[in-house]
């Protein structure tokens, strides 16, 4: 459930973010922000660092969305920012430690897989504020009091995408739809479990296929899984694998079936993207930075993005998905009102 700091975040999560899509090279980048100079002069000057998960900033979903939030903070809040790219798990502790040693006021760890490293480094630097995407502060081994968890109810977004896919499969007489996950970790499984439940609610007869690439980078692995699923009758492929999942979307395009994007709105990848299951990592990152600058950052707590507060949902529809937009909106409203509450988090 949301922590006490979430009400301040809820409003920001419902706002449309003006995103600046840009990447940092391996040498990383620093920015002192620009524009809105008069307002920025009134704000405290803080330094904010971000450490990506593997996959880097060109994954077009998870890491890039976090980077967009950082870039927005540089532009709108005038904070100094730096992003460090992790090429492997071994980079997590060194990257987090580098930013803490350089006295960044806030250090953001992007991803569930960074939990152990965040716990280790946060203990070493108790005077630095940390935020971690996709992991609960209370779930960290030592529960360091200088960490805030940025969580998302991915199962709610997955349910909406699954409901859409089930409706489409029913109308088209399709026997199956499918999911391509990356590593089998809770945020991935939340999406998949919700997707399968939503699809079954819309179309009890549809089969749901699932496979894991055990990779968030190699697009060929996800494409191979998706092609196999399509050969078994899948007419909709939901990618839940970051950069790797771009291969699944490519497979859908190649075989003229529908695709569902993940995390960020991936409609721009092509007409085959029926919609995307969204979690607004960019807004959560921006809000954490904004609170740190304002002195309202609540370390030792979690904030949770939901359908109700606008932190998760679905993206733009293609012409196929648009036919079902009103029915999906009805389901979204039922989730927001609490009428639908039993969405599973684990893949059966």
Entry summary:
By secondary structure, the chain is an alpha/beta fold.
Describe the protein in words.
This protein has 348 residues and is an alpha/beta fold. The protein has two domains: 6-152 and 280-305, Response regulator (Rossmann fold, 3-Layer(aba) Sandwich); 154-279 and 317-337, Response regulator (Rossmann fold), CATH 3.40.50. It is built from twelve helices and 13 strands. It has helices at 6-13, 37-42, 62-77, 92-101, 115-124, 154-172, 186-202, 219-231, 246-254, 281-294, 319-322, 325-337; strands spanning 30-31, 47-51, 80-84, 106-110, 129-133, 147-152, 176-181, 207-212, 234-240, 258-263, 273-279, 302-305, 312-314. The strands form two sheets. The protein has a seven-stranded mixed β-sheet with strand order 1-3-2-4-5-6-12, with helices on both faces. Strands 8-7-9-10-11-13 form a six-stranded mixed β-sheet, sandwiched between helices. Strand 4 (106-110), helix 5 and strand 5 form a beta-alpha-beta unit. The longest helix is centred in the middle third of the chain and has 19 residues, at 154-172.
């Amino acid at each position: 459930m949301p922590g006490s700091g979430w009400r301040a975040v809820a409003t920001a999560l419902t706002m449309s973010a003006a995103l600046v899509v840009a990447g940092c090279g391996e040498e990383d980048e620093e920015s002192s922000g620009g524009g809105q100079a008069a307002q920025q002069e009134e704000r405290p000057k803080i330094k904010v660092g971000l450490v990506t998960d593997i996959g880097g900033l060109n994954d077009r979903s998870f890491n890039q969305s976090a980077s967009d939030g950082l870039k927005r903070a540089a532009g709108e809040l005038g904070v100094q920012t730096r992003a460090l790219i992790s090429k492997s798990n071994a980079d997590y502790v060194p990257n987090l430690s580098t930013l803490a040693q350089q006295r960044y006021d806030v250090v953001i760890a992007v991803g569930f897989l960074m939990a152990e490293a965040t716990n280790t480094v946060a203990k070493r630097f108790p005077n630095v504020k940390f935020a971690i995407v996709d992991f609960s502060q209370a779930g960290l081994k030592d529960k360091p009091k200088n960490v805030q968890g940025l969580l998302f109810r991915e199962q709610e977004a997955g349910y909406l995408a699954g409901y859409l896919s089930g409706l489409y499969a029913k109308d088209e007489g399709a026997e199956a739809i499918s999911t391509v996950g990356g590593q089998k970790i809770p945020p991935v499984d939340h999406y998949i479990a919700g997707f399968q439940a939503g699809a079954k609610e819309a179309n009890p007869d549809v089969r749901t296929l699932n496979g894991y690439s055990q990779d968030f980078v190699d697009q060929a692995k996800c494409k191979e899984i998706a092609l196999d699923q399509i050969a078994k009758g899948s007419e909709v492929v939901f990618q839940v694998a970051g950069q790797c999942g771009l291969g699944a979307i490519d497979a859908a395009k190649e075989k003229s079936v529908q695709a569902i994007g993940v995390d960020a709105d991936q409609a721009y990848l092509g007409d085959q993207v029926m919609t995307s299951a969204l979690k607004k990592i960019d807004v959560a990152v921006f809000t954490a930075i904004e609170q740190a600058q304002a002195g309202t950052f609540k370390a030792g707590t979690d904030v949770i993005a939901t359908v109700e507060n606008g932190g998760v949902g679905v993206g733009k529809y293609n012409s196929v998905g648009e036919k079902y937009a009103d029915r999906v909106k009805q389901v979204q409203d039922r989730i927001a009102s609490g009428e639908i509450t039993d969405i599973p988090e684990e893949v059966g």
